[in-house]
Specification:
The protein is an all-alpha fold and 313 residues long. It folds into 2 domains: 24-179, Orthogonal Bundle (Tetracycline Repressor, domain 2), CATH 1.10.357.140; 180-303, Four Helix Bundle (Hemerythrin (Met), subunit A) (Up-down Bundle), CATH 1.20.120. It is built from 14 helices and 2 strands; from the N terminus they run E-E-H-H-H-H-H-H-H-H-H-H-H-H-H-H. The protein has helices at 25-31, 34-50, 57-81, 83-87, 104-126, 128-149, 156-165, 167-176, 181-204, 206-212, 217-220, 223-246, 252-274, 280-312; strands spanning 4-7, 15-18. Helix 9 packs antiparallel against helix 12 (223-246). The longest helix is centred in the last third of the chain and has 33 residues, at 280-312. The radius of gyration is 20 Å and the shape is flat. 45% of the residues are buried. The model is unreliable at 1-18 (pLDDT under 50).
Amino acid sequence: MTQTVTVDRGKYPLTQFAAPGAGGVGDYFALLKPRVMSLVVFTSVVGMVAAPGHIHWFLGAVAILCIAIGAGASGALNMWYESDIDANMARTRNRPIPAGKMAPGDALGFAVVLAVASVIMMGLVINIVSAALLALTIGFYVFIYTVWLKRRTPQNIVIGGAAGALPPVIGWAAVTGSVAIEPVLLFAIIFLWTPPHFWALALVRNDDYENAGVPMLPVVAGVRHTQIQILIYSLILVPLAVVPYFIGMAGLTYGIASAVLGAIFIWMAVDVFRADISTPKGEQIAQRLFRYSILYLTLLFAIILGEDLVMMI
């Protein structure tokens, strides 16, 4: 007979999931949110390569490892705290804790050790500034976004997006020991990209978030308001994403590509604005923007990385 564990967090639904097991290597790896971690590592590498000066390859590898571990720890802490929400959403109910593959306490201990170790290693091996920024990123994601904002306000993604936007700043600081306008600009691009990216998905997953008691924008303000906000953020994001070319941070290839990619982004955001999300076609349009937004950001940062690597040769 399968045992169940009941979780009750106030106004949110009672959640039942299978009694936890010991958890395997794959379960611990899943806690790290590897897909999110890969984007964090990628953008931090761009910040490192774009930074003036030089860092020894070994120190650079250590810095990347620390950032990856810190990002994974943040994801694990998020999964531990949100296990009740995850159990009520089709997209997340098979994660290790709600699926009963791992005890919440094991996940918490694993995450805390990784978080502390990543910050200490960054401070001892790289520099204090990058370690402080890494600690800020982890703390912001866990305490500000996960604990405070996620369950309380539809602006959770907007404010909480700062945590996901900090990795290129950490990468820059790992090389220079300081912060400058260039990494702040990369931060701003990711920060403004986050709302239309996640809200496009939220439009499709609206019922899922509502059932889980998460006040995402479509749940609280409605689909139409979300469509308007996606378009507004897109119209602000696209011109800003061209700025690295005009300040000399990126070359002509980036300037042309960011303009073209941005035009496509706005076109898709307009399509979402005009779509009837209640229909299958409307959902497809929103999903298309969500998928393209990932490609958009990846290509922007990949071009900056490629241009800088060519300059080093």
